[in-house]
TrEMBL record:
The protein, known as: Leucyl aminopeptidase
Organism: Alkalitalea saponilacus
SUPFAM superfamilies on file: Macro domain-like, Zn-dependent exopeptidases
Keyword Phosphoprotein included in the entry's annotation: no
PANTHER family on file: CYTOSOL AMINOPEPTIDASE, LEUCINE AMINOPEPTIDASE-RELATED
InterPro entries, A to Z: Leucine_aapep/pepB (IPR011356), Macro_dom-like (IPR043472), Peptidase_M17_C (IPR000819)
Length: 482
């Protein structure tokens, strides 16, 4: 499955068309019959309370879609409606195996036109690498007819969507193909393709760095761990100190000796490297669009299995920063490997550290699949900037409290801290654990809810969603604009 988005002034008569309109009078110049216009007006009247109504007309296999955006809401909300309308239209194109459509902007609004194209393209994704029968091999082409939409903006949007596709592919790959070593190989390939630098540490190097958390989780696996360092450092970077993004890379999580229950909870655990996928996708988008920001990505990677030397509750680990950790539950492993990455980030003296992790079921239970749980020590202005970025791309943040009261839940009687707090507030105690390993201003993003979904919603497909890529790209893009 692939897509292209390009500008054009000439639209083939036979292809499907999508019209952004202010009123139905505008359609009379585009070969709509009086009957069709009356039908559209009737549908608008029937759904007068609908925000940005969509009407679809079929002429055999050709689809004519008419969208009338509202104007009485904040722009980011209207843009999200356009993305969702685009996804809805794409579903109709898929049903007809219709690969080409033109977006005709009759409202002279580039942001809404691009948002509609974004929804179409994001919903065009599918993961069928392992299908041996008939594959859905549609190659979509979306034409934009709008003198106001710039080719460079189309190109930038395309690169970001391709980065989301990349992150989705990584999450959807099974561990039989994508273990920690293979992830390291792909990081090096992507570095060459997108233009950032990368280095992948092997187990011996990780041992020399004394990354006790990553090494401990890896003890039950037959596959060695890796630790990847990705860097984009353009000469015109607006930040003197780098931004560091770290992603949890548990390639498959059995829970270790604290085996996940019920058994069905194991079915999706290839997704436990969603944070790592988001970091790679973000680095690809930032580098491909040559944003003038210095960004470093850190990815600790291993699977969590039940091999003969697997860690058990009661073990004491010594982490990269020297802290000792009492293991209470081996299914609280993501924080162990991510802690070493956060500790390692200190060497860069970063301006800001952001981590992404499918860390706790507690976060998913709290807010479901529609938002990202956030917490940390970054100042309010950084939180506001992340909120704005999240609202802009509809990857919204819900900030959890980070009060000192929660520190008590990870105190250990025999070590510096323990890796599991109380059940209540579990997402926060997990964040508190991570906070012991980072000194710079820091934000923890728990993406356990939206990183992998069991049913398609709007432009997010079943499986890996690539959440975090558009959020962080928008955040860094806003930084570069300043």
């Amino acid at each position: 499955m692939s897509f292209t988005i390009r500008a054009t002034l000439e639209v083939p008569q036979e292809i499907s068309k999508i019209f952004l309109i202010q009123n139905t009078e505008q359609l009379k110049d585009f070969m709509f019959s009086e009957t069709e216009i009356e039908y559209i007006e009737k549908k608008y009247q029937e759904n007068e309370k609908d925000k940005s109504p969509l009407v679809i007309i079929k002429r055999l296999s050709q689809i004519l879609a008419v969208v009338k955006p509202t104007t009485d809401e904040p722009l980011e909300i209207i843009k999200e409606r356009m993305r969702r309308r685009g996804a809805e239209i794409l579903s109709g194109l898929k049903a007809e195996k219709n690969e080409k459509a033109a977006i005709i902007d009759l409202i002279s609004n580039p942001p809404l036109t691009l948002a509609l194209a974004e929804g179409l393209a994001l919903n065009a994704y599918s993961f069928n690498k392992y299908k041996t029968g008939e594959k859905n091999s549609l190659n979509y082409e979306f034409l934009i007819v709008s003198p106001q939409v710039k080719g460079c903006d189309i190109a930038k949007l395309t690169r970001v969507i391709e980065a989301v596709y990349l992150a989705r592919d990584l999450v959807n790959e099974p561990v039989g193909y994508l273990n920690a070593e293979k992830l390291g190989e792909l990081v090096l390939e992507y570095a060459e393709k997108f233009g950032f630098k990368a280095e992948v540490f092997n187990k011996k190097k990780i041992e020399s760095l004394k990354m006790g958390g990553l090494l401990a989780v890896n003890k039950g696996s037959i596959d060695p761990p890796t630790f990847s360092v990705l860097e984009w450092k353009p000469e015109n970077a607006v930040n003197s100190k780098p931004y560091v993004i770290a992603g949890k890379g548990v390639m498959f999580d059995t829970g270790g000796v604290n085996l996940k229950t019920p058994p069905g909870s194991l079915d999706t655990m290839k997704c436990d490297m969603g944070g790592a996928a988001s970091v790679i996708g973000t680095m690809a988008a930032v580098a491909a669009n040559e944003l003038p920001v210095h960004v470093i990505g850190l990815i600790p990677a291993t699977d969590n299995r039940l091999g003969g030397h697997a860690i058990v509750p009661g073990d004491i680990l010594k982490m990269h920063n020297g802290l000792t950790v009492e293991v209470i539950n081996t299914d609280a492993e993501g924080r162990l490997i991510l802690a070493d990455a956060l500790s390692f980030s200190k060497k860069y003296d970063p301006e800001l550290v952001i981590d992404l992790a499918t860390l706790t079921g507690n976060a998913a239970i709290a807010i479901g699949i529609h938002g990202i749980v956030a917490m940390g020590t970054a100042p309010q202005n950084v939180q506001n900037e992340l909120n704005n970025a999240g609202d802009e791309v509809c990857e919204r943040l819900v900030w959890f409290p980070f009060w000192e009261d929660y520190d008590k839940s990870i105190k250990s009687d025999i070590a510096d801290i323990k890796n599991l707090g109380e059940r209540e507030g579990g997402a926060i105690s997990a964040g508190k654990f991570l906070g012991k390993f980072v000194d710079a201003p820091w934000v923890h993003l728990d993406i356990a809810g939206p990183a992998y979904v069991m049913a398609a919603t709007d432009y997010r497909p079943t499986g890996g969603t690539g959440v975090g890529v558009r959020l962080l790209y928008q955040f860094f893009n806003s930084k570069s604009s300043k």
